[in-house]
Amino acid sequence: RDALPGATTTTTTTTAPASMQNLSSSSDALKQQLVERDARLSVLRSRLDMVERENEHLKRERGTSGASASASGGGASRGHYGGGGGSGGVSVAHVPPTGTANAANVVAKAEVQELKQEVNKLRSMLAFKEEEMLEARRAEDDSRAKLREADAERTRLAAEVRAERRARATAGQKRATSATDDGSDAAAK
């Protein structure tokens, strides 16, 4: 009933839109970051798929070249340089590069995993900010309701004061009229 709750409510309502705007802008920024991370994640997934396909292709090549080399009696396929394949040429063992496709695969998977974690973190931050926005909206709605209640109470009290003043005014007029009536009755006697 005092003026303090209304004043506190007014202060709350003036700061609530500013905090709502800050929460909204930070929420928009988080959404933008989430979109960017999703795009990077998509690119990395496609790179990972490409590396995995290349890895499978290399495994198949190694399997077929290993089978043909073992059938010919050698452990690794050999290429002959110079001399037309005769005794004067240099024989070099062709070993497929091991670990390069796997290393790229592991790195890509690690990047994807890291981005997934970052996306999850951003999603949780976004959910938190949205929850803060909801709480701020609830607080603003509550403060508006309190302000309406205080305004209704003020209006009710003002009506009571007016009614009391009217009652006093009419009571004063009745006393004045009765005093004049008593005075004229006494003068008539």
Automatic annotation (TrEMBL):
UniProt biased composition (Low complexity): 176-189
Biased composition (Gly residues): 72-89
Annotated stretches, region: Disordered: 1-31, 53-98, 136-189
Sequence ranges of Polar residues compositional bias: 16-30
Organism whose genome encodes this protein: Ostreococcus mediterraneus
Domain of life from the UniProt record: Eukaryota
Bias (Basic and acidic residues): 53-63, 136-167
Protein name from the UniProt record: Uncharacterized protein
